């Protein structure tokens, strides 16, 4: 009888669980947990990008600058050390725990043994985990943004949309600069709406009212923008974004009082920004104002000597046509999301007057996030390369507008069956995106949408695996199939760290320029990825292995052991 009674209670239990799951925070938590679980379970599938070793060296060079006064090489003194420093601390803590609890052999000190220990694979992979964890800030920020605009009911949808932007998801595991910048930028956009609203509301009050709370928030926001600027100096424009949006929203008959009230708070915000920025960039300490001026001049006139593959032609980064960025966004954003993005812009335009001051501030900040900096880059004919990598911070804003497009469309439909049709078609489109992402894994960052023709259409027309992630798989194949003790060559010195950390100790790995030093005309194996016509080197060697996705080669292995007369 007890079992029968217990069985009869099960429907009620499931009903209560269903109601619990319908609660907004449970949905949001479930989506964030799913994103986190998938990310952490796949993070070690990725290779090492060609930029990652530089970000380890930045930390070393800045420490030597602090300790010994040695100048930081090249342009690397223009970047902060917070992200790289915290990532290194995480690695050292992890290794200390493993050494003391699991008897792992201790590492030599990082800075004193960098030349050898930089190749410790665990350091790179630990930083990948940390990079992905930082990217979660972005998902929380867009969830907060949709909550602000449409309430908790829809909060879960925004992070889900963002995770389905393959370019953002793909970069989230290994990009040591653009992902932290996008994460903090999105957080600044979200919190900026609250700053704008509070300053606007208090501008009509006597100067002394609410000053403590507003002042604390202004200082905190300035510090956050300072950390953002320490990743990329262009982050300081967030201060201008907040000021511009405040001026747009303030009533014209109250602008005088607004300026009196806001001047003090914006001054505090700017001072706290400057202090935070200069604290995280040691090379600025001797002369902060000169450093800031030099940084702005350098980055605004940044020269990159390479060429970019665009529409089948190799073009210098400084001579790209104006449509380079728009084209990349059009062909690498899922077509379904482009449609909802346009609907989102229409919905925001039509309903803008219905929103509160805080909501209007957030909308305007998101629009600035999406359009302003890319437009400046286009107008100035800035030196751009690596596709849209430097503009990844735009994608979270696009995810917000895309989510708004779906919500607005759903709300415009009155009949339930048409709502079901909308949801069904959207789910089908999402499944197609998921299929493409799974097919490309772990190289989701090379996604091209189906309307354009996908990755096959991009082959030899646009750059694909420009950061050499697939060289890991090539190196692993050589480990299993190559001749022990062989000499392996990669195209250039900056490619070494995409292969060497994965190599077995039996192999000697050098770049092409080092062959002369070891008096060899050609290697035993040549490992290269699809960029800069690297395939033209060692033409008489045999092509023996390809890492491909959708039939497109990303990394290739050449076996030169049967050819001894080929010069490099």
Structural commentary:
With 568 residues, this protein is an alpha/beta fold. Helix content is 58%, strand content 7%. The protein has helices at 2-22, 24-42, 52-68, 82-102, 114-117, 121-150, 157-163, 166-171, 178-202, 211-231, 237-249, 255-279, 288-300, 324-332, 335-351, 357-380, 394-412, 416-440, 454-458, 471-481, and strands at 307-310, 313-316, 487-490, 508-511, 525-529, 542-549, 552-559. The strands form two sheets. A five-stranded mixed sheet has the order 4-3-5-7-6, covered by helices on one side. The protein has a two-stranded antiparallel ribbon with strand order 1-2. A hairpin with a 2-residue loop joins β1 (307-310) and β2. α4 (82-102) packs across α6 (121-150). The longest helix has 30 residues, at 121-150. Residues 110-118, 206-210 and 564-568 have low confidence and may be disordered.
Based on helices, strands and strand pairing, what is the structural class?
A: alpha/beta
Strand line-up in the sheet with most strands: 4-3-5-7-6
Helix content: 55-70%
Q: Beta-strand percentage?
A: 5-15%
What is the residue-mean pLDDT, rounded to a whole number? 86
Largest sheet: 5 strands, mixed
Distance between the termini: 85 Å
Our count of helices gives: 20
The gyration radius over C-alpha positions equals: 26 Å
Number of strands: 7
In the predicted model, the low-confidence regions spanning at least 5 consecutive residues are 110-118, 206-210, 564-568
SSE pattern = HHHHHHHHHHHHHEEHHHHHHHEEEEE
User: Any idea what the shape is?
Assistant: globular
